[in-house]
Each structure stands twice: as C-alpha cells, then as structure tokens.
Amino acid sequence: MVDLVHRPGEMREKVLDIAEPEGFGNAVIGVKQGSNVHIDVRLESLHDGILVSGTVDVDAEGECVRCLTDVSLPVEVEFQELFAYSEDEAFDYTVHEDHVDLEPVVRDAVVLALPFQPVCQADCLGLCPQCGVRLLDNPGHQHEAPVDPRWAALAGLDAEVPQDDTEKR
Ligand SMILES: [Zn+2]
Ligand SMILES: [Zn+2]
Q: How close is the Cα of 116 to the center of ligand 1, in Å?
C-alpha cells in the first residue's frame, strides 16, 4: 500500500482469500469462524485518502426459521468506503500507518446483506405443529382429526357394547 499513499491516480487491484478469524452475523444466520472470505478489492489513491471498493463472496450458515434444518446461503455483496488520511471524526475510516483495515468494512457489508428470516427454500412448509416432522420430507402428512372430547366419552361406551350378531334382524 505504501506505493499508493499520497499518490493520487495510482490504483491497485487485489484478490484476497481470508479465513474469517472470529465469525459474525445476526441471531439466525452468519459467517462462521474459519469460513473462506473471498474478496476482490480495488484500491484507488485520491487526494484525501484511499478509495476502497470491491466485492465479497462468502457462505453464511444458519437455520431455516420454519423447519430448523441447516441453511448455507452464498452471499455476494459489494462495498465501497473512503479511508481518509485525516483523523477527522467526519470520516468513519482512516488510513493508519499506510494500511487500511478492510475487515470492518467487509463485515458490515455482509451483515447488511444477511436475511433475518432465512429459509431452506422459498416454499418451505415448516414443521407439523402436532408431531414436529418436516412437512417437505413428508408430502401429504396429516393426522386424523382430533376427537371431540364429548364424543370421546361415547367412543369409550361403544367398546363396552357386547357384540351380538343375533340382536339384529
Ligand atoms: Zn425449511
Ligand atoms: Zn404430524
């Protein structure tokens, strides 16, 4: 990066593959520690800083909010930030000792792209509310209609009626 600092007009492109050091995400889906984070980045030297733009590709992992099976979701998102030379508070990011720290920029871009309601597939039917089986795996799954408690008493009586074929004509 030294060759870019304070040399407006200079530009560099890099491809980075980084193992995510910590893991991040929202409550239901995120990038796990050790996941490969692929970054295509372009660094452009401007008068007041380094303009960093690029694309990040990573797989986010979580659970389907309907059926709770594991979901792996490819995320591809673009980012662009100016890393200023000035330490002025007006800038969110600054160049420190000839370096730019891409990590928070990439993390924020990915987090914003994550869904809050990830699903395994758009038409996921969720789980059976009675027994919990995954309905997509069990087409046509259903239970017999629950017996009305008033009739349940009669059903019990039924069993006690002696079976006698001769009773009927
Ligand atoms: Zn699902
Ligand atoms: Zn069921």
A: 14
